[in-house]
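Task card 7
Instruction: Convert sequence to structure tokens.
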Amino acid sequence: MATFMRVGRHPNIVNLIAVVLKGRPMIVMEYCPHGSLYQYLQNLKADNAETEITADVDFLLSKLQQIAIGMAFLTTRGILHRDLAARNVLLDDNLTAKISDFGLARARSEYILQRPNIKLPLGWMAPETLIPGDGRYSEKSDVWSFGVITWECFTYGQTPYSQSFPLGLDVDGLSQFLLSGQRLILPETCPDWMRALVADCWSWEVSGRLSFKEIVSLMGKYSKVANPEEEIETL
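Output:
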């Protein structure tokens, strides 16, 4: 609840509508009828099971830009999401992407995971967050996850690293895979400039990664949003 109150309102997050304190406490959240971005991508794949998927690349890029704007806004509020994935992005009436599920969010610029046995979304996690009992989260960890969401979009909801780890992911295996310089491979449908951007999201060194504000600015050069940086501001 404290996290929701701290966040405020923005077009690219699922907004808090009300809090019910009488009787059983409840929160009322913004309704997004099109469900998760992950399910939307899966439906596209199912609808085109026998043919090549031809979703508009501009559509995919627009969703990613909206996610980047929403995350840049959260960063200005001092919020780390820590579970940024297509399953946690919802689509409203107009198919606007809205970041949801702040279950793992923390209101600080850097966070150290204190409970090594908690189940975590390994496929979306940055290398520095994989250290048991000492995983450090920052904005740049969420930036790594943004790169994985980009891969999800262009593969229409495939599971990260499923081909490299057919029996399932484990911390040691993934750490060694990433340390060796290997990364998820983006499909050819992803534009070259977006590939370069994602490569900067997946730098092993935290300091080598982009910030969300930089991502918004770079994507703005190729998008139809005239001044995307202005979209970061609080409503």
